[in-house]
Amino acid sequence: MSKNRNNSDDDIIEVPKTLLNVSNISISFFQYTQGLRKTVLNVVEDLDLDVHEGEIVAILGSSGSGKSLLAHAILGILPGNSLLKGEMIYDGKILDQKLKEELRGDEISLIPQSVDSLDPLMKVGGQVIGDIEDEKEREEKRKEMIKIFKNYDLREDVIDLYPFQLSGGMARRVLFSTSMINDPKLIIADEPTPGLDEKSLEETLNYLKIMANEGKGVILITHDIQAAVKVSDKIAIFYSGYVIEINETKNFSGNGDKLLHPYTRALYKALPQNGFQLFEGTQPMNIDIQDKCIYYDRCSQSVEKCGHSNPDLVEVDDGIKIRCHVVRKI
């Protein structure tokens, strides 16, 4: 945490340190079509996002909106035919490919979506601590693993089990343990909640809260708006490869009057407890958007300008941003 001093020496405000700053990120893929013509497919454009220590940022959007691609860009695991533009700053340093490879699995850790990520042919203990040749170091890691297992309600004998011997909940807790073994600063949880019953869902979200309470930055990638509201500090709404709104989670409450973008409000009102108000249309592919607002064809508030240009993401309050020609203030 950093300290921000006002005029009085007695007034000290604790300000969370910015752990990750993502600025103007675009992701494209090149491919060869008939006749070996090289084409470029734009998938993600103009993404901005900040993550602070001790903060959970939920990235919310439907399939194809670019959520996981951002995670892959941060981790440096985009495929070879990808083109990445923009800037990422991690802990004050430019996060280039070399640094991503150095930090991946160490300071920056991933909780994968599926328990199928566990190797069925390797015992749990070996997967958590990895291949360590030095006997002293391996023993220290084993002690750390046992301590982490205890935090996630896993018995010590789980170390010698194979994944097929674990229940679904145990396997998911092993994934959490694996992500924590090197005491990371930034954790990316990629869709950790689909298919979970209510008890398992609450348990998983509670683990994310514990991580944030320990001062770690957490990115929660999800399409579950209710899970995002339960656990996060702020929510970034993704749509067709763009961030269209970043808002504080506390504003996802009541009638949703403090939500800004028409799409965000529509998502919120579609929840069962908010009347299950469905809205028409589908999310377009990024390549189908040309010289107009990405939400233009579904928006009930559009004006003439919306049909001719895609708005920039602008800050309307401290940390609250929106991409909209019509809505420019809270």
What this model shows, in words?
The protein contains eight helices and 14 strands. It is an alpha/beta fold and 330 residues long. The protein has a domain at 15-107 and 184-261: P-loop containing nucleotide triphosphate hydrolases (Rossmann fold, 3-Layer(aba) Sandwich). It starts with a strand and ends in a 7-residue tail after the last strand. The model is unreliable at 1-9 (pLDDT under 50).
In short:
The chain has helices at residues 67-75, 97-103, 124-129, 135-151, 168-180, 198-213, 225-231, 262-269; strands at 2-5, 12-15, 18-33, 37-52, 56-60, 82-90, 93-94, 108-111, 186-190, 217-222, 234-239, 242-248, 313-317, 320-323. With 330 residues, it is an alpha/beta fold.
Features:
disordered N terminus, 28% strand, 330 residues, Rossmann fold, single chain, 8 helices, four-stranded antiparallel β-sheet, eight-stranded mixed β-sheet, alpha/beta
Helix content: 25-40%
**If you consult CATH, what is the topology of the domain at 15-107 and 184-261?**
Rossmann fold
Specify the CATH class of the domain at 15-107 and 184-261: Alpha Beta
* Termini Cα gap: 29 Å
Largest sheet data? 8 strands, mixed
Structure classification: alpha/beta
How is this fold's topology laid out?
Elements: E1 2-5, E2 12-15, E3 18-33, E4 37-52, E5 56-60, H1 67-75, E6 82-90, E7 93-94, H2 97-103, E8 108-111, H3 124-129, H4 135-151, H5 168-180, E9 186-190, H6 198-213, E10 217-222, H7 225-231, E11 234-239, E12 242-248, H8 262-269, E13 313-317, E14 320-323
Parallel strand pairs: 5-10, 5-11, 8-9, 9-10
Antiparallel strand pairs: 1-2, 3-4, 3-6, 6-7, 11-12, 12-14, 13-14
